[in-house]
Design a protein that fits this description.
This protein has a 5-stranded mixed beta sheet, with helices on both faces. It starts with a helix and ends in a 10-residue tail after the last helix. The protein is α+β, with helices and mostly antiparallel strands. The protein is 27% helix and 26% strand.
Length: 131
């Protein structure tokens, strides 16, 4: 978990967030043990922005992995007490590659504050097994 926090914090510094100034980084460990990172990339056309969690998941898929073992989200908003949680769309993206045992770490600028599962974040969810 400490390594994921460090990686997410580091990659958040590379965020392209000229509009919100809300820097987000995400690091995940795939079931293979490989760590993937991602950061948010904003766009003048706001709906085209890429969230950090989605970027990390895209990197994981491009790397050939398909299962998230652990994922951490970190944000630097200027508020040290803000608990950084995935948005609704990212919760669904995580759901696609999570298992019931996947650990999702929610952090503040000071470190991990809470560990949850996808069921905690997205109860009664829709996933691949529903198709």
């Amino acid at each position: 978990m400490d390594l994921l926090f460090q990686k997410a914090k580091e990659v958040s510094e590379k965020s392209y967030s000229p509009y919100s100034h809300f820097k987000v980084g995400s690091a995940l460990k795939a079931a293979s043990g490989t760590i993937y990172i991602g950061t948010n990339v904003e766009n003048a056309s706001y709906s085209l922005a890429q969230c950090a969690e989605g970027a990390a998941i895209t990197a994981m898929v491009a790397g050939g992995d398909r299962e998230i073992s652990e994922i951490l989200v970190y944000c630097d908003s200027g508020n040290v007490d803000l608990l950084c949680t995935p948005c609704g769309a990212c919760r669904q993206k995580i759901r696609e590659f999570a298992t019931p045992q996947t650990k999702i770490y929610l952090s503040t600028k000071n470190g991990v504050q809470k560990t949850v599962t996808i069921e905690d974040l997205l109860p009664l969810s829709f996933g691949p097994e529903n198709l």
